[in-house]
Amino acid sequence: MSRIYKILPRADWAAAQASGRFEGSEIDVADGFIHFSTAAQAQETARRHFAGQSDLVVLEVETEDLGPALKFEPSRGGDLFPHLYGALDMAQVRAVTEAPLDADGVPQVGVLA
Fold first, then answer.
1. Deepest in the core among 47, 58, 66, 103, taking most CB within 10 A?
2. pTM for the full model?
3. 3-state class of 7 per DSSP?
4. How many CA atoms lie within 13 A of 103 on its CB side?
């Protein structure tokens, strides 16, 4: 099994829990898929896209649970990133962890590559 990770504001997580599914953040909706990161990519994603944002959580999802709606596609520097074409059902979330800011204001996702 292989885990992938979604960083998002706690408010978005609370809304997803209330509805039973996560439809994506504003950028996900604009891009047409939910952006995820592998363990090796998650900390750099946090640094690039979430610096200075507090009250974040990290969702952990098994790739095998997502089926054919999950595609690995080239992105930053040619790296393949996991993209989910569809909503994420809350039952597919295996764990949720905090992403506290470090001294430089970068969320620490606590994901081991």
1. 58
2. 0.92
3. strand
4. 0
